[in-house]
Write a structure and sequence with these properties.
Blueprint lengths: L1 H4 L3 H9 L5 E3 L8 H4 L3 E2 L2 E4 L2 E4 L2 E6 L35 E8 L5 E7 L5 E9 L6 E8 L15 E2 L5 E3 L7 H6 L4 H4 L16 H8 L8 E8 L2 E7 L7 E6 L5 E6 L2 E3 L1 E8 L2 E14 L19 E13 H9 L4 H4 E3 L5 E3 L7 E5 L4 H7 L1 H7 L6 E2 L1 E7 L4 E6 L22 E7 L5 E9 L34 E7 L4 E6 L8 E6 L5 E6 L5 E11 L2 E9 L19 E9 L16
Helix pairs in contact: 9-10
Length: about 600
């Protein structure tokens, strides 16, 4: 049943391109009181092709839920031996860091969900779902953690995508810095991973850094993870070392099944493209890094600009080849015990300065014969050494409008290397962020990049003229970005045939994060969902037609976890939500040809 229900993206795109559908949402309210600020609010209704439909948020599971008596609580972390991970005080660790959750069909047509937990150690859970064939409502039947012992565990699984061939493509964000192992000084953040190994059972938190030096290899983590689901008991997991190692937000496979874009989340990061040797096989290919060749005006550091000019800038995009590899080649290099000191010399003649160009910058030179190790184990550093642009800030979600061959890429913040007047780029400072568009050629190679929709600062900051904060005694006081615009955009998804880009937020500048609908033709921005205090919108992802129904996955990560901790009234409120908006009638394709292997209605 999988081949019938998971056609190529190209077939789905052809079906939707002739549809020219219409999609509108009513504006969800801005939370103004305590009850609304700790609730999930949505648009009252949507109008799809002239039909009025209710918009509801449906929770499939919250962290800690057990859909069946024999299920492990959703989000429970396990170690390399399958034992539950315990904190220093002996309590079982159940993660509230729910992130991307995909909908995947098994070999016999069953519906499954693969869910990320953005923790250290990380977890992915496989959940079997039941779909009501009359109403479309989804229900969790049973869930279990996937086994990552073959890879020494999973790491900070953030966003993800679904490949054209119907597999789950996940991520490992913010990989541990190999320099810390060279210098014998592992941070507490990285050292938490050592609880995946039996040697750390019962250890105090203060002892984890020293244990990490012995039992962890930083180069085990930071890769794309592909999951192929056959049934509830059989799901194959692979790490694709040949796709490079960066702070992966997500990777997105183009309709040709060979070109893949990877976003690098962090400060002074790069944009990467992988060209697989064979369609539908990510285990071998050539890795490239982007170079921004600015065509918009150059804004020196601290240039004051009007809000209308904070559009993100424009540039031509060139590509620098970093190397070719197979998964096995890179895994063999890792297993050889290679270290940061084996790959690089630092502060020597001929080194290249990369990083923040301040006290935290680095001057590195690749040692003779270590180019492949540098390219695939230290991809962002090697990209900078090779002349690619590594100045982007907080690069996040990726999606595609197949009708126009436009790729969309979210940048949560436009600052630091993007605005410092040095290097390849200097565009207007905007702490509220920008979603960029990238034009793709016939081979899906990006050639041009430009700002599409940007947030609007309300308070004074470097490079901004505005100083118009919301009243300190009013309900909007905690918002530094305008409430009628985006703030720190994160994950994005596109509704093909409907000219609608969905934008999720991960923001400290809006008190309640928002999912927006943005019509790329009319430029209308509509608030579709808000989330409780201190939570992040993750995993907005469209499925056009699953047995006659459409869904947008929507996950609410760590309520009260990033702000307003003092507003938490009960532990129950802090549990994360994994759910969806819908169900809606199937959109854009017939049941036998619906594009479930992609992420659109």
């Amino acid at each position: 049943m999988q081949p019938r229900l998971l056609p190529l993206i190209a077939a789905m795109a052809a079906a939707t391109s002739v549809q020219a559908g219409s999609l509108e949402f009513t504006n969800a309210p801005v939370p103004t009181n305590d009850l609304d600020k700790r609730s999930v609010l949505t648009s009252q209704f949507a109008i799809v092709d002239g039909k009025k439909l209710d918009v509801d948020y449906n929770t499939l599971m919250r962290s800690g839920d057990k859909p069946s008596p024999w299920s492990m609580p959703f989000g429970t972390l396990i170690d390399i031996e399958g034992e539950v991970v315990k904190a220093e005080d002996g309590s079982v660790r159940v993660s509230n860091d729910n992130d991307f959750s995909s909908l995947i069909e098994g070999k016999r047509g069953e519906l499954f969900m693969v869910s990320h937990f953005e923790s250290r150690p990380a977890a992915m859970y496989l959940t079997q779902l039941k779909q009501n064939r009359k109403t479309g409502k989804l229900e969790a039947l049973r869930t279990r953690p996937l086994d990552f012992s073959e890879f020494n565990g999973g790491w900070v699984h953030c966003a993800g995508s679904v490949t054209p061939w119907g597999t789950h493509l996940g991520s490992e964000e913010y990989p541990p810095n190999g320099k810390e192992w060279r210098d014998g000084n592992v941070s507490g953040y990285n050292a938490e991973m050592v609880r995946y190994f039996p040697a750390a059972r019962g250890a105090a938190d203060a002892d984890l850094p020293s244990l990490a030096l012995t039992y962890m290899n930083p180069y085990d983590y930071g890769y794309n993870v592909e999951v192929s689901v056959k049934n509830f008991f059989k799901a194959d997991v692979a790490k694709h070392y040949a796709m490079g190692r960066v702070a992966i937000e997500l990777s997105y496979v183009m309709p040709n099944q060979k070109t893949v874009y990877t976003s690098d989340d962090g400060s002074r990061v790069g944009l990467f493209r992988f060209e697989a040797d064979n369609a539908g096989d990510l285990s071998a290919g050539t890795l490239y890094a982007a170079k921004w060749v600015q065509t918009s005006p150059w804004y020196p550091k601290d240039t004051r600009v009007e809000a209308a000019l904070r559009d993100g800038g424009t540039a031509d995009i060139e590509w620098i080849e970093l190397g070719h590899a197979t998964d096995k080649e890179i895994r063999d290099i890792i297993d050889s015990g290679v270290t940061f000191a084996d790959i690089f010399d630092e502060d020597v003649d001929g080194c290249t300065v990369i990083g923040n160009r301040d006290a935290s910058s680095e001057c590195l030179k690749v040692k003779d014969g270590m180019e492949k190790a540098a390219a695939f184990l230290e991809t962002s550093r090697y990209a900078g050494i090779s002349g690619a642009t590594t100045e982007w800030e907080k690069m996040e979600g990726i999606t595609l409008d197949p009708d126009t061959s436009t790729m969309y890429l979210a940048m949560s913040r436009v600052r630091t290397g993007m605005t410092d007047g040095e290097g390849d780029m200097s565009v207007p400072y905007n702490y509220c962020g920008t979603v960029y568009g990238l034009d793709l050629d016939d081979d899906y190679v990006a050639t041009r990049m430009y700002g599409v929709v940007a947030g609007i600062p309300r308070t004074y900051s470097r490079g901004a003229l505005v100083d118009n904060p919301y009243p300190a005694d009013g309900p909007y006081a905690a918002n530094n970005c305008d409430l009628n615009g985006i703030s720190e955009p994160d994950n994005v998804t596109f509704v093909p045939g409907y000219k609608t880009l969905m934008i999720g937020e991960d923001t400290g500048q809006h008190q309640n994060d928002v999912i927006w609908a943005y019509n790329v033709e009319s430029k209308q921005l509509t608030r579709v969902q808000t989330t409780p205090y201190g939570s992040e919108t993750t995993s907005p992802y469209f499925y056009p037609n699953i047995n006659g129904f459409a869904y947008m996955m929507s996950v609410i990560q760590h309520p009260f976890g990033e702000s307003d901790e003092d507003a938490l009234q009960a532990d129950e409120e802090a549990r994360a939500y994994t759910g969806y908006l819908g169900p809606f009638p199937g959109m854009g394709a017939e049941e036998d040809d619906h594009g479930h292997g992609h992420h659109h209605w």
